[in-house]
Amino acid sequence: MLIDVHGHVSAPDKLYSYKANLLSHRGAHGRGGPRISDDELRAAQDAPNPSFGNASHMDHLDGAGVDLQLISPRPYQMMHSETGRLVQWFTEETNTVIHRLCELYPERYKGVAGLPQSPELDVQEWTAELRRTVTELGFAGCLLNPDPHEGTAVPPALGDRYWYPLYEALCELDVPAIIHGAGCRPPTREPYSLHFIQEETVAIWSLLSSSVLTDFPDLKIVVSHGGGAIPYQVGRFLPADVRGSNRPYMERLRSLWFDTCLYTQDSIELLLRTVGVDRALFGTEKPGTGSQRDPRTGRWFDDIHLLIGDIDWLTPTEREQIFAENARKLFKL
Amino acid sequence: MLIDVHGHVSAPDKLYSYKANLLSHRGAHGRGGPRISDDELRAAQDAPNPSFGNASHMDHLDGAGVDLQLISPRPYQMMHSETGRLVQWFTEETNTVIHRLCELYPERYKGVAGLPQSPELDVQEWTAELRRTVTELGFAGCLLNPDPHEGTAVPPALGDRYWYPLYEALCELDVPAIIHGAGCRPPTREPYSLHFIQEETVAIWSLLSSSVLTDFPDLKIVVSHGGGAIPYQVGRFLPADVRGSNRPYMERLRSLWFDTCLYTQDSIELLLRTVGVDRALFGTEKPGTGSQRDPRTGRWFDDIHLLIGDIDWLTPTEREQIFAENARKLFKL
Amino acid sequence: MLIDVHGHVSAPDKLYSYKANLLSHRGAHGRGGPRISDDELRAAQDAPNPSFGNASHMDHLDGAGVDLQLISPRPYQMMHSETGRLVQWFTEETNTVIHRLCELYPERYKGVAGLPQSPELDVQEWTAELRRTVTELGFAGCLLNPDPHEGTAVPPALGDRYWYPLYEALCELDVPAIIHGAGCRPPTREPYSLHFIQEETVAIWSLLSSSVLTDFPDLKIVVSHGGGAIPYQVGRFLPADVRGSNRPYMERLRSLWFDTCLYTQDSIELLLRTVGVDRALFGTEKPGTGSQRDPRTGRWFDDIHLLIGDIDWLTPTEREQIFAENARKLFKL
Amino acid sequence: MLIDVHGHVSAPDKLYSYKANLLSHRGAHGRGGPRISDDELRAAQDAPNPSFGNASHMDHLDGAGVDLQLISPRPYQMMHSETGRLVQWFTEETNTVIHRLCELYPERYKGVAGLPQSPELDVQEWTAELRRTVTELGFAGCLLNPDPHEGTAVPPALGDRYWYPLYEALCELDVPAIIHGAGCRPPTREPYSLHFIQEETVAIWSLLSSSVLTDFPDLKIVVSHGGGAIPYQVGRFLPADVRGSNRPYMERLRSLWFDTCLYTQDSIELLLRTVGVDRALFGTEKPGTGSQRDPRTGRWFDDIHLLIGDIDWLTPTEREQIFAENARKLFKL
Amino acid sequence: MLIDVHGHVSAPDKLYSYKANLLSHRGAHGRGGPRISDDELRAAQDAPNPSFGNASHMDHLDGAGVDLQLISPRPYQMMHSETGRLVQWFTEETNTVIHRLCELYPERYKGVAGLPQSPELDVQEWTAELRRTVTELGFAGCLLNPDPHEGTAVPPALGDRYWYPLYEALCELDVPAIIHGAGCRPPTREPYSLHFIQEETVAIWSLLSSSVLTDFPDLKIVVSHGGGAIPYQVGRFLPADVRGSNRPYMERLRSLWFDTCLYTQDSIELLLRTVGVDRALFGTEKPGTGSQRDPRTGRWFDDIHLLIGDIDWLTPTEREQIFAENARKLFKL
Amino acid sequence: MLIDVHGHVSAPDKLYSYKANLLSHRGAHGRGGPRISDDELRAAQDAPNPSFGNASHMDHLDGAGVDLQLISPRPYQMMHSETGRLVQWFTEETNTVIHRLCELYPERYKGVAGLPQSPELDVQEWTAELRRTVTELGFAGCLLNPDPHEGTAVPPALGDRYWYPLYEALCELDVPAIIHGAGCRPPTREPYSLHFIQEETVAIWSLLSSSVLTDFPDLKIVVSHGGGAIPYQVGRFLPADVRGSNRPYMERLRSLWFDTCLYTQDSIELLLRTVGVDRALFGTEKPGTGSQRDPRTGRWFDDIHLLIGDIDWLTPTEREQIFAENARKLFKL
């Protein structure tokens, strides 16, 4: 069985024209809504998408044999840096679309919430939507964007007490948060896709160098895209164990989880060797950045199940852990 | 014959999901495009719209007997205050949609261009799109937003030399500009719809108190919504004629044109009495803000042809001037 | 009888050289005072003023047959955007000058207070001067400037709770506030005189779209200059009645009062038709902006009693309401 | 004979109510003017002033036996930090008032110009008024305020090339500049009167540590109030002569001139001993800060001629130099 | 006996390479420490210093016959405007170095503390180090920098309640504070050495024009460098006694103490005459700014004991007061 | 033979106390210099350093068998975000120390320059020091910090024309630049050591997505620390090859060079597999972050030669390329 922990919703155009409208009237038309029918929702799962190799979301899942996918909002659309009220409305509508898809495809989809992470709102205010999605809509967890300013200012690091109300709610509801950036606006130098990597790198550093993991021993954090730069640069952090009196770095690192959303076998191997098979979760971001066929191999770049399949030193049990067991336990699926 | 100089395009959702996408990837996916078919364009003209009294764009035009409508971008969607490159792409795509509609409905629609008025771009750069739309696409004029910051900063007044490259291009191409605000974002206190009025008020003041009308004697400026507050407050400006040595205020005021886009007969009468019938252009903004039926009368609020029809002191010739002749001459229709 | 609710004090030069001095020593000389004698006060009422057609304040009142005028500070001199302590001193001295004039001319003048609306002070601190002028000096009300920053920053809208301490004091003392802007400094584009109009427009919008009128059912608000742009643009706000569930717009609008300080008959007629005769108060701003003779008619532009006299559809009772009765009741004169 | 190089104009209230007006209408009323009659000018010289011990300007000059006084604008009124155009108008009107006084009292007064030192204007633009006053009005020099921001920002130091256009004009016209601060606004901590001292201290440091005196060997600079802190702290700068290779500090210091505007004999003695009698100019600032009678001695604090008279080690020739000769040569009187 | 109240520590290079390191790793290496041996401390007292005329700290003390010197941190090294945590670490290490020197040279040195005056820290937090140094390390007082921003922003004046927690601690511990600036960074125009003078000038003004001396009658404040500009400019402040109702200026001024750290006899005489012998404390800043030999006299510029010796009108008792008695009582030595 | 391209200078304390002094007097003492003797330079190479496992620089080189090391300034000490003039002085002094060490140890050391990358200076001004070090001092290349603001602002990306004057100078002198961050100050969230990684990641993205490599085909760029996150995340960038028309990503990536400064064998293997053996340069940063002994293995973490030695699939020729040949050719050693 294949459980993909890293999927993003394929929503009809109406959700985004709704968003464009919000950003234009700035609330003057009231909240309104995207007014999407079930048929339109289904059509959006089956429509071939030129950005994704002209295959549909369902084509991609079927092709890779993904049995169950956790779906969350398209991160780059989350617009956390916009006006609080607008972020709130759009986030809630997006989560509602996800929920409706989970009801239409109960075997295929499980929801992961976006949070209205506007810096204009108190962190406490973000947690209302976490509660609604988990307790009322049955979602399995949420995304956590370490940079609600989307590149326009420097936020408090994840180790800062600023974030504690969210950690408290996550522990209370006993669901994981998946570290995943959102958009990235000027003045930063990087596109959103690289910003994800940079934010994951900072996020791990922020968490491991703070007392978050001690203060919240039950907090479950998944880091997307194989943990940014950290597994590759891990040697850089080990000598400090000798200099200082902290809990060993590897022990701290292995209190997090990591998805396998990397598109080369070498990198996935390095990840597994570094953080351990028991901390890795199958994740594809399908359809998404990697949804093109590699002209040299004919494979989709994001056919991560094939890359994992090619790793000869994994045992069947280990493969099963990565593909489904770890996720099943962590997300209580 | 009825020529409506104040119409805004009814575009398919795809144009706005395209916009939402631009605002999210910030250019990282490249320019792309909204990929709209002719059928989708036609459907958008005929779809009943709940925001507009459940009637379609065509229903509204037919109902009011509008023969020809000048259509421009929906102003509140123009997003001038966003990143220059994104503004440019979206403006061009919007104008292209307008052009395609003009080709599909050559008798019904005539294009009025939006300009990529990003403060990040030189005014000179805005004029390229003016030239393209007028010389290549046959547009009759353009919108001019006096506040490209959309409420987030104070722009140079329209009397400032900052705007001269645009005035030069307008004169060279011999087309009018229609003063019309765009969006309105925090920190301003007013919604975009009131911002239009405020900007028109400032625009008239800025133009009349500067040397623009002397420096560009052939410049043709139409002010939307009956000129903001000016015709109503006109008495306030007359005593200065006695104090100063300027050209008389009324003479300066009457070098501009005004549309009749006001939704009460009293106001339209005041406008006509103040600026003169020869300076008034029939304009409805249909379908738009006024597209609801007045429960007391059963009329659409924006049935401005009926309001003008009710003015008993207008001669048939004057009515004809307002309804069609003035516009025909000004826009060379 | 003619009661003019819109008059501003004619003070001796010493009041303004006092102000210039404050702005120069910034408090280093202590508060001091303008040291004006009664004779100087009287002379200032009788001195012909070249800015006002070479007639004196008294000439203007006598000429127009104004029996009683409510006088407040010259708004453009109020300097709300300066340092709090200086604003406080100058406002108090100005109100004291007004009070002394009211004592010298008890039949002719009634005081309307300026408030020390410095953004550096708490709104609560402004109300001390309101209390002093009303309870100790017998003033009939106060001015309320919606933009204490005088164009240098965006203030909270009048619907914001920021303003509530002032509304509470007004209700407690049971006196009206007259919406009237003060100065206007860069970076805005408009002169103070147009800023008045823009602020009145925003003020009405802010009040009517908020819960102020519900939270303070007894609050009495007069809007100067015939309500800015709103009566002229009123049609723009009516369709929302159909879309939303608010109290009807006209009902909300008619919970405010409006002065007739417009210098054309057409505009005054539009005002009276729009808000109703029972909501209109005779106001001239004499001597002021309109104090020049119209060369075409020989009349003073601000001879508003003549303009109202020329409106043929008003009954004698209605004229009496506008000229005196409404003001008498509202201000308890 | 007594020549007092440090006097400020006593102008009628009208000049300052004109200023208050400019700061309120911000130019909307046009430039206008203070409209002062000759009688009003004369009255201002003869009116007893409560701030100055109830004596008039002329009383003070007569009492001290001042034969000729150089009069410049009241520095704290110069408002350099306001909008450029307003500064220009007010400065020119002030200089014109000074000029008219010099014509009314040709034996008693000689003009020293204020410059429109708005940071919004180019330094080049300031020099037009220097040229007008020197070449057309016969002024003997000008004030130079090292801090045109009046405490709201940090200006370029006087050694910076920013100031060179002014130095060039001073050399070309061959007139001295008198270093004298203007107002002082928040956020600084000091009142304008102490700001003068601080600015003089920085000014001397800035000039002596730069190449100004080498680049403009003919530049004549007078420092007010005995040179701020420098003569008292002079020892602090001497050891650097040993460390570095500059021209000796005392030599550089003595290329400037200093007025005696200090109100204690000890300080004047220290000044004379430090900079030399040949670099000292009699200056009183009469009437001004020091125009109160010392209750212990009955003398006016600013009776500086008496303090100098009490210095027993000065020769008659030296006294004559200080009282008149140095000034006569420097200002070509 | 000679007690010098104005000395600064001569510390080994390691203290400053430690500081450079802090400013580079910004805390990433942890606090660490300068790791200085007693031998290195002693060597730093005995090493000839080219900046100080090639004589050592001890040479200077011996040469001048200084028996006891109060030593505090080198002010220009205190870096108060840097990150709070770094300021705290460096200040504590510097005070510890001072303490170790006092233990190595118990007859020669007495400690005066630097405080971690980072604007990022609460004033309350600064006082912990004051308590530690006074109660645990036996220090005699502390430095007080009126400008913790070091020229990069305007701090609250010393009369502001911002400073009250420090005044409270000083009174509670019954130790004096010595007013002394620290560094001076852009955008100010002056070097740190002149900034000291300017800050002392403002400090005296701020204290005397506030209620600090009334609120803290037991507060003991010493002003360095002879009080900046104030004793020289003292006449400027006396006329206000006549105008206002304050306690006489001289009385207020004489509630402070002043060191004699001026390098010319004239200035020291002026100081003594102005503030009185009983308010003057012998201070040299040796070795420091003045540690060069005057080529004309062969004396060290900072041989202030010689300058005082040359003042012929001082009695032996007065000399003794200045040289030792005043300091002994004030600092309880 | 072992050539280590990534070494940083071990300088005596005096260089850093010199730096601390510059940051304190801000130039007021003049440039001065660190005054280091040859003996002190040699001692600094041989002194055991507690931060580096109590071994000396030479111990580390000898222990690892490094024959030749390229030494550059300690990056975290470079203080690029400080005042331009101070950066210039300190950078030049540091390079001079490096040069003197190269002369003392001509077989062991080869210089790599730091540049005075202050954002206050023009990029053109930075190149003077590049020219001096390469043409006069024989240096082999320079460091290039992509973030001269050190975390306090967002700089232009390396693809921006801002950087072109530096690229031109590098090409003209035909020397490589080594991408290496400097310090990292608030408000960023990461310590300098992680900032290096983030900056390398952005640097590669900036260069490869721009036209720099086309505009400067001969430009030689080495990326430190194995290229930040890029080789690990490389799969993320490959699908774009299919979507766009760029030169293939791997081809562009392989136009850069990468050092092996990673402290785990897995990471080094991933690097070599990703960029190719011909693009890898042996680099250790010895002594530095990795200079602690791994308690599990007894090896130094930065014994990168052992890690490379353990990679069983490398041929002897490949090892030789990595260890020396690639560097020899690139740096012309």
From TrEMBL, chains A, B, C, D, E, F:
Domain Amidohydrolase-related, first and last residues per copy = 3-333
Q: Which UniProt keywords apply?
A: Lyase
Q: Which Pfam families match?
A: Amidohydro_2 (PF04909)
User: Is Lyase among the key words of this record?
Assistant: yes
**Coiled coil: which residue ranges?**
none
Designated name of the protein = Amidohydrolase family protein
Q: Which organism is it from?
A: Actinomadura yumaensis
Its ancestry begins with: Bacteria, Bacillati, Actinomycetota, Actinomycetes, Streptosporangiales
